[in-house]
Design goal:
By secondary structure, the chain is α/β, with parallel strands linked by helices. 59% of the residues lie in helices and 12% in strands. The chain starts with a strand and ends with a strand.
Length: 344
């Protein structure tokens, strides 16, 4: 298990997304500007379009309102599939976060188990030392006061460990219940919470008909296999989660797909190549700057870098653009890595 050292303590984000209050207020103003009733459906549409102005919903709203045209209630109904798409993405992120918390609790359980073993082994060593001292010439017998003190310390440490284990067991049970309540399907990658390749089928099919064109980036971590070999799969999985979090932060409005293993696809519609490449460069820099350490020991796992290929598609199947981007990514990986290569 790893932790992002800089995300702990005071720098840790709050439970609510930043700017949610402002987004809610802007959504209500949006409804008023379009003379739409403040119903549950219309508010959901307005809020998601404000939160994701460059996503599929935000772009469709911009297209329909181009030139000052007001949305109608019929438009709201037509836009609901895109609204649900954003809501499903948020729920997927919630599930990934819950599973990450469960992993943290499992690691804490492992730590407490190790502590219990240390308590008993330490007590055995100290008793053995007292016995050895007695055999070395102390005819007065073992120091009963020292033995009593050791027993008292042992009992206190065991009591603390038992309390921690009881609290942890309750936390794990609660997390399990919360995770089970979140929908889970094959359209979502269970590890990272982004779209799976299966879930991206509709998106992939629609790209060829997008008149504004689209950008596809294929990206991967440069040494995930080495991390897995050195620290194990659980650490490698958490590095992947950190990678996806970085992509989400840097690529606002993008669709992120876990294509296979360590290969992710980022799709941006209606954006120029230069802007998309800049987003991937931001992600590369942010990933390289993250301080990832093993939880518990605090041992750094070293700098983790990414590489990507970025290509443009206009009126062509996504597969064609994907292959262009993938050839660029492979060039970056086969070279020194830690590079973003792009081509129109």
């Amino acid at each position: 298990m790893i932790m992002d050292w800089e995300s702990q303590g005071q720098n840790r984000p709050s439970a609510d997304p930043p700017g949610l209050f402002d987004a809610s207020r802007e959504a209500l103003l949006f409804l008023d500007r379009h003379h739409l009733p403040r119903t549950t459906l219309s508010y959901a549409m307005a809020l998601q379009s404000v939160l994701h102005p460059y996503g599929p919903l935000g772009q469709e709203v911009a297209r329909r309102t181009d030139g000052g045209v007001r949305l109608t209630e019929d438009d709201v109904r037509d836009l609901m599939p895109l609204v649900r798409q954003h809501e499903m993405t948020e729920r997927r992120g919630d599930r990934a976060q819950l599973e990450n918390e469960l992993g943290d609790q499992a690691e804490r359980l492992e730590t407490l188990t190790a502590d219990a073993r240390q308590i008993t082994s330490g007590f055995t060593s100290e008793i053995a030392a007292l016995s050895q001292a007695h055999r070395g010439g102390n005819d007065m017998g073992p120091d009963t006061g020292a033995v009593a003190l050791l027993l008292e310390q042992l009992i206190a440490r065991i009591a603390r460990t038992e309390r921690d284990l009881e609290e942890l067991a309750a936390n794990v049970a609660s997390l399990r219940t919360r995770i089970d309540s979140v929908p889970h399907d094959e359209d979502v990658d269970p590890l990272t919470g982004v779209m799976s390749r299966t879930g991206a089928r509709a998106l992939v099919e629609a790209l060829a008909g997008d008149p504004h064109g689209y950008v596809v980036a294929t990206c991967s971590l440069d040494d995930l296999e080495g991390i897995n070999d050195r620290y194990g799969r659980s650490v490698a999985d958490n590095v992947l989660r950190a990678f996806v979090a970085t992509l989400r932060q840097s690529c606002e409005g993008a669709e992120i797909i876990r294509w296979q293993g360590n290969l992710f696809v980022v799709v941006l519609r209606g954006r120029p190549l230069s802007m998309a490449t800049g987003m991937l460069e931001d992600a590369r820099g942010a990933m390289q700057a993250r301080t990832l350490r093993l939880r518990g020991s605090g041992e750094p796992i070293g700098v983790v870098t990414m590489s990507a290929g970025v290509a443009v598609g206009i009126g062509v199947p996504m597969e064609e653009t994907f292959h262009k981007a993938e050839s660029l990514r492979q060039l970056a990986v086969d070279g020194i890595g830690n590079r973003i290569l792009s081509r129109a």
